[in-house]
Amino acid sequence: MADFAQFLFSGFATGAIYALAALGFTLIYNACGVINFVQGDFLMLSAMTTSALLMHGVNYPGAALAGIAVTVLIGVVLYQYAIKPAKDANVVSLIIITIGASIFIQGMVQILLGKNQQVLPSFSGDQPLSIFQALILPQSLWVLGTSAIMVLACVVFFRFTLTGKAMLAVASNKLAAQAVGIPVHRILQLSFGLSALLGAIAGIVAAPITTTSYDIGLMLGMKGFVAATLGGLGSGTGAVLGGLLIGILEALVAGYISSAYKDAAPFVLIIFILIVMPQGLLGAAPRERV
Amino acid sequence: MSRNSGLALTLAVVLLLPWLLPNNFMLDIAVRIALTSIAVIGLNFLMGFAGQISIGHAAFVAMGAYGCGILISRWDWPVIPAALVVCLVVSALAWLIAKPFLRLKGHSLTMATLGMGVIVNMVLINEVNWTGGPDGMPVPPLVIGSFAVTKIIHWYALAAACLWLCCLLSVNLFDSPAGRALRGLHGSEIAARVVGVDVSAFKVRAFVCASAFAAFSGVLSGHYLGFISPALSSFTHSVELTTMVVLGGMSSTYGVVLGAALLTILPQLVGGLNGYEAVLFGLVLMLTMIFLPRGILPSLVLLLKRA
């Protein structure tokens, strides 16, 4: 039983990270129908930049802020110079562009910051806390707390601010949004920046537990996507729920079955879910505009 | 360029090449290009014709190479039945994967292929008893009947013949009702459905064909290289295949062969990529899609027509 609680807690913390990655996916998917392959690299980029700055003697909060700023900037640049110029392209071309960007970013980080795994120091020590006979790293609580705050902030943003509502309008119909005077390009730019921000914060909070290296973006991005699909692509609540489920499943598989194959678990799960419930757990029934 | 003149031109090129290439090193590169092209032509059915993206295609190549290698070296199967069984099993697996994902709208298949690539890579590394683990495994030379294909020129003949046949199949598919259906759903799924195309069935077929071609390319490559490692199923290799299709020209059979040739020759010219392959492939993917969305060959053809 103590084992189970242990796996559950660690799964919950990893799941919270996947949930944030999934939320970023959902944001961009809703805004322009593109699966953004750079999402996972946002998490990697902020953590790698922060650790590089720490090594050069910058203090922790400063390095973390700089890491987040760099990532958000890259998110906006990605939209401005890679997605927007190809504006007449179909979704396939846009997805290929994000795949290219993801590989390019990984390659650059590998060259500039090296191939080694980096670890960020924990925010408040490494002394584990004991809850229900399970040991929890304080950093896991940071991860959970930060995720909860960010999810809440997203809810507030979309429900109570004009910009958030404009973003929803663009997501549901670009042309109509333009017709009522919403600056569509600005909003799309913002949604790339926002999902980069979500990824960047998640990356830094998670790095003390997961460690980080130039190629983790791939795996994080995939798990985030599986989580988003599991919850029903396009649904924010679904993304968070999917992320937590994936995290817990992975921890249970690693604990009880095989740690070598824990990364395979989400994919096997998603195949089964898609056969049984093609719309995901909370996805809306399919509606298509001609 | 009509269908027959294109095929005749390709035939002439592959027949003349052995006389034009000065040494075995060049011939070796030609064989590698031909073997890679087989997988890339298959991938083009999926990406170019049907407009679906796969970035885990190297997994099928690796399954072909490892499957055939294991059947031949562990159980002494003859090559031809082993190759057939492996291609069939890989196709069946592709069908199982494609079926649930292609029912979704959007591009979930892309992520599914990525996930599959990761899982195959994981299995190849972890199942040391079967695959030799991270160190890889040797593959015995190709023996067809009692004839062992070992000389480079024989390999060239075999690879060139297979490549030409694949071009023939691909060009014929392009103009066939199935090819038109695939291109139709690439343009607009809804329009394709309106004229009676079973969209998801055709996507599944394209995916299965693509995986069979990849497995076949893997079978031959494994024998040609004589040694295979999990790197064959790596993400980098998948991206390389995808980049070849995008660069050469999606939906153009000769275009993707050109893409395969360019991306195989380029690293040789600059003396290896030394860790810069990710930057190069990423940049090529982005720039091609932004400035030359049709790819090199179709853009050139368009330019010539205008001039």
Shape of chain A: globular
Low-confidence stretches of chain A: none
Largest β sheet strand count, sense and barrel closure of chain B? 2 strands, antiparallel
Low-confidence stretches of chain B: none
* Mean pLDDT score of chain A: 85
If you compute it from the alpha carbons, what radius of gyration of chain B comes out, rounded to the nearest whole angstrom? 19 Å
Structure description:
The complex is a heterodimer of chains A (290) and B (307). With 290 residues, chain A is mainly α. Chain A is 73% helix and 2% strand. Chain A contains 11 helices and 2 strands, in the order H-H-H-H-E-E-H-H-H-H-H-H-H. Chain A has helices at 2-32, 39-55, 60-83, 91-113, 138-160, 162-172, 174-179, 184-210, 216-231, 236-256, 265-276; strands spanning 129-131, 134-136. Chain A has a two-stranded antiparallel sheet with strand order 1-2. In chain A, a hairpin with a 2-residue loop joins strand 1 (129-131) and strand 2 (134-136). The radius of gyration of chain A is 19 Å and the shape is globular. Chain B has 307 residues and is mainly α. Helix content of chain B is 76%, strand content 3%. Chain B has a two-stranded antiparallel ribbon with strand order 1-4. Chain B is globular, with a radius of gyration of 19 Å. Chain B starts with a helix and ends with a helix. The mean pLDDT of chain B is 86. At the A-B interface, helix 4, helix 9 and helix 11 of A face helix 4, helix 5, helix 11 and helix 13 of B.
